[in-house]
Amino acid sequence: MTVLSPPPPADAPPVPAPAPEPASAPPRAERPGFAFAGAALCVLAALLLGFAANLTLVGHLQHARDQQTAYDEFRRELALGVAPVGQQTYDGKMLDPGAPVALLRIPALGLKEIVGEGTTSGVLMSGPGHRRDTPLPGQPGTSVLMGRQWGYGSPFHDLHRLPVGTEIRLTTGQGTAVYQVSAIRRKGDPLPPTLKDGEGRLTLITADGSPYTPYGTLRVDATLTSAVQPAPPRPLTLGWIDRSEQAMGTENAAWLPVFLWSQALLAAALLTMAAYRVWGRWQTWIVGAPVLAALGLAVSGAATRLLPNLL
């Protein structure tokens, strides 16, 4: 049986009609170039942070790691009697760039560093380097070592504080050579006297000036006071090195890794912006930030080799 509801009273107000539901707002259109602008900002931030890290904390950590590895290798070679005594290995091959050739100790500065073969910017990231066209320490002639003033461990930061007479010791495959500082010179200072036959000299070179903005080079000359060791024939004669191995030289060979790592960084930045629209903010940055940071370090590390080698 159907029950009818009573009719409304005559004086009752009319019931308003339900309001129409608002139409859903159309999806917001993406601005043209938004992804590229975001990717460019990601790349810029990664590069700036990478440069700052490579020239400070990360660079110092890399230097410490490379020094420990080179020290272990040099000790092994000394124990086996195969440590280098010239430009070639015991089996007649030219030394690889960065191969350990000496242990440098300056007690007055508390300095203890493994010296690598070569003086390019890449080699000097790991520690002091031996200029390849000069004799090894302890041999007759002038042996030249270069090191960084501020970046990557800054091994030669305090060279300007060495007083005349300070002792410098270098251990090679021929034993330990002892030197005494004879002069500290900058551009325009008198050159040291010409060496006589059978005499040896050591010259340490680094940048001179404000942090990361040098205006010249600083040289420390030291005279060999221990017995002179014989020098094997040198296939690479004085002056026959690339400009990248000279003081304040830059390593043009680094352009290729810079280009390749930059492409990887740009691709990662574009993928990060694409993931941002799909995943959301936090999910994207949890995944993307470590990748962008690692690639930024790689790009800036390669680009650092384009800077002067004594920074």
Characterization of the model:
The chain has 311 residues and is of the alpha+beta class. It has a domain at 53-253: Beta Barrel (Sortase, Chain: A), CATH 2.40.260.10. Helices cover 32% and strands 20% of the residues. Strands 1-2-3-4-7-8-6-5 form an eight-stranded mixed beta barrel. The chain starts with 33 loop residues before the first helix and ends in a 7-residue tail after the last helix. Mean pLDDT is 87; it is low at 25-29.
Biggest beta sheet summary: 8 strands, mixed, barrel
What structural class should be given to the helix and strand makeup? alpha+beta
Total helical segments: 5
Outline, from the CA principal axes?
A: elongated
The CATH topology annotation of the domain at 53-253 reads as: Sortase, Chain: A
Could you say what the CATH architecture of the domain at 53-253 is? Beta Barrel
Question: Helical residue percent?
Answer: 25-40%
Give the oligomer, counting copies of the same chain as homo and different chains as hetero: single chain
Element order: H for helix, E for strand: HHEEHEEEEEEHH
Summarize this structure briefly.
By secondary structure, this protein is of the alpha+beta class. The protein has helices at residues 34-54, 57-80, 121-124, 255-279, 281-304; strands at 100-106, 111-117, 129-130, 141-146, 167-172, 175-185, 200-210, 213-224.
List the helices and strands and how they pair.
Elements lengths: L33 H21 L2 H24 L19 E7 L4 E7 L3 H4 L4 E2 L10 E6 L20 E6 L2 E11 L14 E11 L2 E12 L30 H25 L1 H24 L7
Parallel strand pairs: 2-3, 4-7
Antiparallel strand pairs: 1-2, 1-5, 3-4, 5-6, 6-8, 7-8
Helix pairs in contact: 1-4, 1-5, 4-5
